[in-house]
Structure formats: structure tokens, C-alpha cells
């Protein structure tokens, strides 16, 4: 099998509209609609889909849980701009900036949480 990319991830959230709005506003990700009204956000060539535990999109993980995700996204802005932007949106920085090793090499990361407490690493590659 020749697998080389991720198409999308699905986050289980408590309020889809709140999550769509937060990811759109804080990360400036375009909102997408698909499959008769489902909503998500576009992230580069991928997307983030949202579902609620009480009405998941089938098939679903065995234990869809709000706030259980931990993932990294990549920003291209200068680190100072990233920190300023997060402050302007009142997004608390949980940790960082820290040196990390990403999939493409050394990067500097800061960690934040979305409204459902999912942990998001925002990485800025050093090259």
C-alpha cells in the first residue's frame, strides 16, 4: 500500500458551530460544508471535520470523546506574530515556545487548547 498523506481528522466536540467559528477565527481556516450540511475547516490540503458524541458521523471511533485530541499544525508566520495573534484572540499559551522535532525537522512550538480542551501544537519550522 502506498500511503503518503492525511486527508482529514475528525474532532469530537461539544458544539460544532463554536468549534467551526473558533478554528476559523483563531487560525484563519476557511469553513467548508460537505455531506449534506456537515461543517469543518480547510487546513492546507487537509481538513478538520467536527462531530458531537451524541450524533457522530458513522463509522466512528470506538470511544468518541470530547477533548481527547492532541495534534500539531504548522504556521509560516514569524514566531512573534504567532504569539501576538494568539494574545489578540485571548488564547492561552499552555507551553512554549519550545524547540521540537517535527516530521520535517527542527521547529519551534507553542501549545494551546481549543474550546473543548484539545491540545494543539502550533509549530514553526526553523528552516
From TrEMBL:
What InterPro entries does the database record attribute to this sequence? Glyas_Bleomycin-R_OHBP_Dase, Glyas_Fos-R_dOase_dom, GlyoxalaseI/FosfomycinResist, VOC_core
Residues forming the VOC domain are 5-125
PROSITE patterns noted in UniProt = VOC
Q: Which PANTHER family match?
A: GLYOXALASE FAMILY PROTEIN, METALLOTHIOL TRANSFERASE FOSB
Q: State the protein's name.
A: Glyoxalase
Species lineage: Bacteria, Bacillati, Bacillota, Bacilli, Lactobacillales
Amino acid at each position: 500500500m502506498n500511503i503518503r498523506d492525511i486527508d482529514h481528522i475528525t474532532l469530537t466536540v461539544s458544539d460544532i458551530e463554536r468549534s467551526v467559528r473558533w478554528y476559523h477565527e483563531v487560525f484563519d481556516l476557511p469553513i467548508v460544508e460537505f455531506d449534506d450540511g456537515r461543517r469543518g475547516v480547510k487546513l492546507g490540503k487537509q481538513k478538520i471535520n467536527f462531530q458531537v458524541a451524541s450524533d457522530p458521523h458513522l463509522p466512528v471511533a470506538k470511544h468518541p470523546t470530547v477533548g481527547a485530541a492532541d495534534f500539531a499544525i504548522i504556521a509560516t508566520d514569524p514566531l512573534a506574530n504567532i504569539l501576538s495573534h494568539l494574545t489578540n484572540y485571548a488564547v492561552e499559551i499552555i507551553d512554549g515556545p519550545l524547540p521540537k522535532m517535527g516530521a520535517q525537522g527542527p521547529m519551534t512550538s507553542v501549545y494551546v487548547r481549543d474550546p473543548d480542551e484539545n491540545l494543539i501544537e502550533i509549530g514553526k519550522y526553523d528552516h
